[in-house]
Specification:
Number of helices: 8
Bound molecules: zinc ion
Order of helices and strands: HEHEEHEEHEEHHEHH
Strand content: 5-15%
Strand order of the largest sheet: 1-5-4-7-3-8
Number of strands: 8
Number of domains: 1
Low-confidence stretches: 1-9, 11-40, 236-251, 253-257
Radius of gyration: 17 Å
């Protein structure tokens, strides 16, 4: 399929998808002010920092006038809780922000987006949502040496042996489709795991092994024309990421920039 035909097909299918469970629910969100004129093609429900009760960041996040080129999938290395409520999701977001600011000493939560075990999607670092909606890149702290060109999604839980809850998986697929659409990314090339950028277990053996399926499902949602080669990243010259092993109960442990 040629690029123009693909785009038309994609718009048609995504337009239909909006009525099939994906919600344009940011209507009461200030972020909509930054919306591109043509409107969102694919907009999952994203809970804002105000909704989960974020504390103020120490510094306003840097937003670059370009799109990120990769989406980094993480796990939080926190317990695989069974409380799938939105309250638990908000608690998670506050705990991660607290950990990143107090323990890590960063300016704010490191990741741009968080997905709870219950599938609730939340904004992480300040300005992330408005940046995504305007096709720009909010620089986070989630992949050492790669923060200026990657956007990170923290998925609640530890997926070395346990499988990913269906609700989380569904939200991850939709979130990645949204980001690929917003940023014009090829899911086969853009979707990577944290371990692709350094020595870390993140996002866990199980979740990492499901990245090919994630790429396929995202490509399916976007009606992406053809399968491209999987990303190949040379990690030989990357430093170790020794902070990954943290006691359970701490949010995403690896070292990042601020
Ligand atoms: Zn990670």
């Amino acid at each position: 399929m040629r690029e123009r035909e693909y785009r038309l097909a994609r718009r048609a299918v995504l337009g239909g998808m909006l009525g099939l469970g994906l919600q344009a629910t940011l209507a009461n969100n200030e972020a909509m002010a930054a919306e591109r004129p043509e409107g969102p093609l694919l907009l999952p429900r994203v809970h804002t920092r105000r909704e989960w009760g974020a504390r103020p960041a120490r510094r306003r996040a840097e937003v670059l006038d370009r799109a990120p080129d990769h989406i980094v999938v993480h796990h939080t290395s926190t317990p695989n809780v069974t409380d799938y409520s939105v309250d638990a999701a908000y608690d998670l977001s506050r705990a991660i922000q607290r950990f990143h600011m107090r323990t890590r000493g960063w300016n704010d939560a490191g990741q741009q987006l968080t997905i709870s075990r219950g599938g609730h999607i939340m904004e992480g670092r300040n300005r992330s949502l408005t940046a995504i909606l305007s096709g720009r890149h909010c620089v986070g702290a989630q992949a050492l040496h790669h923060n200026d060109h990657t956007i990170g999604i923290e998925n609640e839980g530890t997926y070395m042996t346990a499988d990913v809850p269906g609700r989380l998986w569904e939200s991850l697929v939709h979130t990645c489709a949204w980001l690929c659409d917003r940023y014009d990314l090829n899911p086969y090339q853009a979707l990577v795991g944290h371990r692709d950028y350094g020595r870390t277990d993140c996002p866990g053996d199980v979740l990492y092994s499901r990245l090919p399926a994630l790429r396929e499902e995202v490509a399916g949602l976007l009606r992406f024309p053809s399968r491209k080669s999987a990303p190949r990243i040379d990690t030989d010259d990357l430093p170790a990421d020794p902070g990954e092993a943290m006691p359970s109960g701490t949010a995403h442990p690896e070292r990042h920039d601020r």
